[in-house]
Structure formats: structure tokens, C-alpha cells
Amino acid sequence: MRLTVLGSGAACPPAGGVCSGYLLEDRGCRVLLDCGHGVAPALLQRRPDADLDHIIISHMHADHFIDVIPLRFRLTRDMSGLAAPRVQLHLPPGGIATFAEVLAAVCFPPDFLSSVFIIDEYAPGAEIPLGDGLTARFAEGIHYIPGYAVRIDGSHSLVYTGDTAPSDNIGALAQGADLMLSEATLDEPEEGPVRGHLTARQAADLAAAANVQRLILTHFWFDTDREAVCKEAQARFAGTVAAAYDGMQLDLQGASRP
Ligand SMILES: [Zn+2]
Ligand SMILES: [Zn+2]
Asked: Residue 196 CA: which ligand is closest?
């Protein structure tokens, strides 16, 4: 299983940076997790044909989905779409309605996406087969809008938190995974009832409670000190910790833990 970080930025990444986007390749299957600002050109740098099998969107904030629009144009510039759509676009519950509003607002036809992608909405708790023994499962986190973590099981197991505050649901989903790709957006924990993000320490606690093997922190603001964030997490988590950067590539090798 290979993970390529296409974009590790939060809603405003650093200069030249890219918002959330992660390419997962395993057993010949290519899955794009999230598709925020800048992800389409970052993907084309590595895969000029944009030859994806699946796109999974964690939640409907622009920094996680907006580049589905340029990606659609890469697959065809013909506004009538493709004769045989192949790439599956998996949206969170309510994602189809949100995209309909976005397309109307930018004056694209209602079938702009459905004529190019095979679109569905996933359900938390359900399992989606991705092909070649790869599966995806989802759990709802805690964010300002409905947001979901995804677990991919194949030759190894990876959990991507999406955007979330500390969440028992995500802890349960991540149990025993080889890798947790966790947001670490905050400098300080949020106080009060409205929460939606993690500090690096909270991400480390989530990873430790889930007994994952390694942790990659991501979803950083333009001014985040990634080295400092990494140290904060390392102090609370015994496994390997790294801070994501755009272009980072990681091959998970060896046997996956049972
Ligand atoms: Zn975000
Ligand atoms: Zn968000």
C-alpha cells in the first residue's frame, strides 16, 4: 500500500501549497481521498492521465472537495460527458444535494458531474468494496458540518480522519490500523460546545487509544510549524510520527498486523 500526500494544507495552505488530497494505491487500485484546492494539478503531476478508480470525499467543505470540478474537465472537456463513466465518486450523506447547489451557483449544468463520474453517497458503518479485496468503511466524526473518517483495508490498513474533534467513533474505526492519517489543525484545543478539529496532542491521543502503528499528521495552516507539531505528538504516542508535506510518499511494507 502506497500513500502519496498530494496536499497537506488546511483551508489556507502555505504559498504554493495544496489543500487536502491523498492518493492511495494498493493492489492495482487507485483511490483519491479528498480533493481540495490544488489537488487536481498535483495529481496530474504524478498521474497525467488522472487514472483513478475511486474518489472518496470526507465532508463537503471546499478545501476537501472543490477540485472535483477541474478533475472532471481532465476526464473530458465535453460538456455532455462520457459515454461510459468509470471513476466512482463516493460522497458523504447529503453530498449530492450540496454539489447540486454548488453547480447551480457556478452555472454548470446539473449533470456536469454525474455525466462523468459514477456517484453515490456512502453510509457510516457500511462497507464499500473498492476492488481487488480493498474495502472502505466510514465513521462519523465531530466537525462543524457532518464529516466522516474513512478506513481502507487492503494489503495494509489506513485510517484518514478527515476533519474532526476528538471522536470515539473514529477511535473505534481506527482500532489496530497500520497507519492513521490524522488532521492536526489546532494550536490549542477548542473550548466550548462547538468543536471540529484536533491539536497534534489530541491526534496523538487518538492514535494511541486506537493502538495504531504509525501516525502522520496533516491539514496544516499556512503558518504551522510542522516540526514542532510533530514533536508534540511524539511525546504522547509511542509509534512512529511524521508531519505530512505535499509530495510525501510512504510505502507500507511487510506484514500487516492482524
Ligand atoms: Zn479542512
Ligand atoms: Zn472541514
From this structure: 2
